[in-house]
Amino acid sequence: MSTDNKKWDGKSLGTQFGHNFFYFAIRFGGRRVAYFFLYFIAFNYAVLFPSIRKKADPYISRRFPNAGFFERIKHRYILILHFGRILIDRAIVGILGPRAIRAMFLNPQDMIQMNSGFILLISHAGGWQVAMSSLGVIDKPVNYLMLRSEKDIDKHYYEHQKGGNKVNIIDPTQFLGGSIEILNALKNDEIVCMMGDRVFGSEERSIKMDFLTGQTSFPFSAFKMAS
């Protein structure tokens, strides 16, 4: 698998009009209406957009190595459909409020009882932003180590909320990759959320691991910070 993290630029799928259309559908029709339109749009992406196929097929070829031509189209459609649902769900949390989607931690007391700051290591798997919206049960400020690109036009859940951001964003492109801000947040007993499945910046901060029939790089900065 490719480990060239420079190829990732944060560009969102779709257009600004498309995202605004779904935000409108959520406000006036809820999840069912937004999902209804998604089924058709996901099919168009899976069949008619070579750029989407180029992004999806490296995963599909490794996850389903024996799939035929039509099976790959099916798997591509399912992948795009689930990804679209994740984007819709995170918008629902911001537009309609956290109670619109039920999200809970299995053992919230483990984090509530922590007296110090801590790093919450997360990954791009499932609706992670919906899960992060549940951090409100913990009486601690929340920080995200996150790159916001100009090409990233879809809003995160907290950007839909009235009154502005409820979380603090730490920019990984700043001096020392935001390490100073992360350490200050931990010393102030705050929560720092970091992705553990994407390398940003130097490969020196990563380790190669076997993943889906190949090798790719995973960052270990979070473990160094915690230690």
Structure characteristics:
227 residues; alpha/beta; 4-stranded parallel sheet; two-stranded antiparallel ribbon; 7 helices; globular
Description:
By secondary structure, the chain is α/β, with parallel strands linked by helices. It has helices at 16-48, 50-63, 69-96, 108-112, 128-132, 179-187, 221-226; strands spanning 118-122, 142-145, 168-170, 191-195, 206-211, 214-219. Helix 1 (16-48) packs antiparallel against helix 3 (69-96) and helix 2 crosses helix 3. The two termini are 30 Å apart.
- Which oligomeric form is depicted? single chain
Largest sheet: 4 strands, parallel
Radius of gyration: 19 Å
The fraction of residues in strands falls at 5-15%
Shape: globular
Specify the helix fraction band: 40-55%
Distance between the termini: 30 Å
**DSSP, total strands:** 6
How are the strands of the largest sheet arranged? 1-4-2-3
Overall average pLDDT: 82
* Structural classification: alpha/beta
Instruction: Please report the number of helical segments.
Output: 7
Low-confidence stretches: 1-6
Helix-strand sequence: HHHHEHEEHEEEH
Short description:
This protein has helices at residues 16-48, 50-63, 69-96, 108-112, 128-132, 179-187, 221-226, and strands at 118-122, 142-145, 168-170, 191-195, 206-211, 214-219. Residues 1-6 have low confidence and may be disordered. It has 7 helices and 6 strands; from the N terminus they run ααααβαββαβββα.
